């Protein structure tokens, strides 16, 4: 039986470096059909309603990455959000999300207002509904200038799924079943693949086919980002790391502590949580005859201030990681990095553990 590993199970082995300064590591990556976009860092903010709205998409463009606007709104609201990003930060591009129901109208209206980059995002992306949506988009959807759309599709966790999604029309495949901070897919369904192995196996298949992948879920620090690139990813998607920030959608919630101090929080929740579904209303107003079991949870995360500083720190951590494995460019990490398995005590040793 094959054994699968997650980020904590492996350690990256330091290499002799030719970089004289960590700042010599270049985090710029290209994105788009003709590599027309240069991202300052390979980060994509998650298309979740507590992570990416227009403010996050406008900000991340300037600091390092691209935002993926969430899809849990009406077609009109989605178009308004896209135009709002352009209003706040005119050069900023962003990714717009669709599901596998009602996607034709949503795609066409978003293309009309100028959207070029689409993500078809469902919990179990290796599905017949995904095949139909991708085939329609590839065959029928055209951008304002007549070009074909650039399509991300997911989520999946196996090389076979990567092969299928690529054949159905995906330019990038989003990888991650159950590793996310607010996910309970593995608990509820028993399914999913530990993320380091999922990224490793899916990246190999994607690169063999000439397409790219996004490692989505389970990234808790810049070390995990470096490990995801060591496994071969082309981009990382960040959810919980960017939740609780000023630019994430949602109100700041203030609570008094027992001592009378004030603590500030924001909501972070899975898009398949009961909370998110109730707010969407659909499942509860009879639109769907069958409501599936919740596969996500909701929590309050401490308010973190602007996402700007978080993204800058992640970028610096990534540069340092690149220096440790002697990679000058992001694309070199997968070739330069050496990884080995570690024990759980080895993992614990790596965390600050000052004894009093
Ligand atoms: P992180 O770990 O960055 O993960 O917070 C973000 C990713 O989690 C996925 N996601 C979910 N997965 N149930 C799940 O099993 C959910 O309700 C859910 N909501 C989001 C998604 O891929 C996101 O980018």
Structural notes for this entry:
The chain has twelve helices and 15 strands. It has helices spanning 54-63, 75-88, 103-112, 128-140, 159-168, 185-189, 195-209, 222-230, 274-280, 307-324, 333-336, 344-349, and strands at residues 10-13, 29-31, 37-39, 43-45, 66-69, 94-98, 117-121, 150-156, 172-175, 212-216, 235-238, 253-256, 262-269, 298-302, 338-341. Helix 1 (54-63) links the parallel strand 4 (43-45) and strand 5 (66-69). Helix 5 packs across helix 7. The mean pLDDT is 95. Bound molecules: xanthosine-5'-monophosphate. Residues 46, 48, 155, 176, 178, 180-183, 185, 216-219, 237-240, 270-273, 295-296 line the site of xanthosine-5'-monophosphate.
Topology:
Blueprint: E1 10-13, E2 29-31, E3 37-39, E4 43-45, H1 54-63, E5 66-69, H2 75-88, E6 94-98, H3 103-112, E7 117-121, H4 128-140, E8 150-156, H5 159-168, E9 172-175, H6 185-189, H7 195-209, E10 212-216, H8 222-230, E11 235-238, E12 253-256, E13 262-269, H9 274-280, E14 298-302, H10 307-324, H11 333-336, E15 338-341, H12 344-349
Parallel strand pairs: 4-5, 4-11, 5-6, 6-7, 7-8, 8-9, 9-10, 10-11
Antiparallel strand pairs: 1-15, 2-3, 12-13, 13-14
Bound molecules: xanthosine-5'-monophosphate.
Xanthosine-5'-monophosphate is lined by residues 46, 48, 155, 176, 178, 180-183, 185, 216-219, 237-240, 270-273, 295-296.
């Amino acid at each position: 039986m094959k054994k699968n590993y997650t980020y904590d199970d492996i350690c990256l082995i330091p290499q002799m470096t030719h970089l004289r300064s960590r700042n010599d590591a270049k985090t710029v990556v290209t994105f788009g059909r003709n590599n027309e976009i240069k991202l300052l860092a390979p980060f994509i903010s998650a298309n979740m309603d507590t992570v990416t709205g227009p403010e996050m998409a406008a900000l991340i463009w300037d600091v390092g990455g691209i935002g993926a606007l969430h899809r849990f709104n009406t077609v009109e609201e989605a178009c308004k959000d896209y135009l709002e990003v352009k209003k706040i930060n005119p050069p900023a591009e962003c990714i717009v999300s669709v599901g596998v129901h009602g996607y034709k109208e949503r795609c066409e209206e978003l293309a009309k207002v100028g959207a070029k980059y689409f993500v078809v995002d469902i919990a179990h992306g290796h599905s017949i509904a995904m095949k139909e949506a991708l085939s329609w988009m590839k065959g029928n959807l055209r951008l304002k200038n007549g070009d074909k759309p650039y399509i991300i599709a997911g989520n999946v966790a196996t090389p076979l799924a990567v092969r299928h999604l690529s054949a159905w029309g995906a330019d990038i495949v989003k990888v991650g079943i159950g590793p996310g901070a607010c996910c309970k897919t593995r608990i509820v369904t028993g399914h999913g693949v530990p993320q380091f192995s999922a990224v490793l196996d899916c990246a190999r298949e994607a690169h063999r086919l000439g397409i790219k992948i996004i490692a989505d879920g389970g990234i808790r620090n810049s070390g995990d980002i470096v490990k995801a690139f060591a496994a071969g990813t082309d981009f990382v998607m960040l959810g919980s790391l960017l939740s609780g920030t000023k630019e994430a959608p949602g109100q700041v919630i203030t609570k008094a502590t027992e001592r009378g101090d004030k603590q500030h929080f924001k909501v972070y929740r899975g898009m398949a949580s009961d909370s998110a579904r109730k707010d969407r209303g659909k499942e509860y107003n009879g639109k769907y005859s069958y409501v599936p079991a919740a596969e996500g949870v909701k929590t309050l995360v401490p308010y973190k201030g602007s996402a700007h500083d978080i993204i800058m720190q992640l970028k610096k951590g990534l540069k340092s990681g690149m220096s440790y494995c002697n990679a000058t460019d992001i694309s070199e990490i997968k070739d330069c990095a050496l990884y080995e398995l570690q024990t759980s005590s080895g993992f614990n040793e790596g965390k600050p553990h000052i004894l009093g």
